[in-house]
Design goal:
This is CAAX protease self-immunity. Keywords: Membrane, Transmembrane, Transmembrane helix. The protein is mostly helical and 250 residues long. The protein has one domain. Helix content is 73%, strand content 0%. The protein is built from 12 helices and no strands. The model has no long low-confidence stretch (mean pLDDT 90).
């Protein structure tokens, strides 16, 4: 039996990029992609490598041009020991962000409710209270309870027959807009990780370019393969990044 190793073949990445670009240009809710679990895993790893190359390239260029402090990373490093930082940053936060920005790319009342709840928590934390997602401060329970109320309300409303049909039809007709919104909102909201000054806002499209790469690829894998694949992609990315920060580079 001949075993194929696509990840070492340049043509494989060319084909993978072609599929990704075609989807980005014209995203559809139910792409006609029939692949085995093995091929989906290969593609997820391949897309991870593509994303890593793109993100590292942008980050390397920014180091020589403009590199503001990431306040969220600094805050987490100060508040958590390495093991807890790896657990929260490598598992909890990726799960939270994938539910917030990718889960509802496929419409389902439960998915929509979970996304609405986590997105509410995200906006309250980042935009309203200027806090941190993992920080338990005086606003924490207000943020949590409000998010739960929104989630339950959205679920009860969206599961009713007429509303459910209306939303399903909306997803089918406007999926391109929904996909693009999920990508741009995921990327641009990461500007809240930095100090909100005029310079950072002007640099927003460039500073958040790595997150935009992540969002477009994660959205594609979520729709084409299933929710577990972008979640795995996100966790691997964060775990590798956090692990590198533990290395004694001095």
């Amino acid at each position: 039996m001949i075993i194929s190793y696509p990840l070492i073949k340049p043509k494989y990445y060319k084909s993978l990029l072609k599929d990704l670009v075609n989807f980005i240009k014209s995203p559809i809710e139910t792409p006609s992609i029939k692949k085995s679990i093995t091929h989906k895993i290969y593609d997820t790893i391949g897309l991870f490598l593509i994303k890593a190359v793109l993100s590292i390239t942008v980050a390397s260029i920014l180091q020589f041009i403009y590199e503001p402090k990431n306040l969220t990373s600094i805050s987490m490093a100060e508040r958590f020991d390495p093991i807890l930082l790896l657990l929260i940053g490598g598992f909890v936060l990726p799960m939270f962000e994938e539910i917030t920005f990718r889960l509802s790319l496929k419409f389902n009342p439960i998915y929509f409710a979970l996304t609405s709840g986590t997105f509410t928590y995200y906006l309250l934390t980042k935009a309203v209270f200027r806090s941190r997602l993992s920080l338990v401060d005086e606003t924490f329970w207000y943020r949590v309870i409000t998010a739960i109320i929104v989630m339950l309300t959205i679920y009860l409303v969206s599961r009713t027959k007429n509303v459910k049909i209306t939303l399903q039809n909306y997803w089918q007709k406007h999926f391109k807009m929904i996909y693009y919104f999920s990508c741009v909102s995921f990327a641009w909201l990461h500007i809240l990780n930095f100090e909100l000054n005029l310079t950072n806002l002007l640099w927003l499209p460039i500073l958040t370019l790595p997150q935009l790469f992540s969002a477009t690829i994660a959205g594609y894998t979520r729709v084409a393969f299933g929710f577990q694949y972008p979640l795995l992609l996100h966790m691997i990315t964060n775990i590798l990044f956090l692990s590198l920060t533990f290395l004694p580079l001095d």
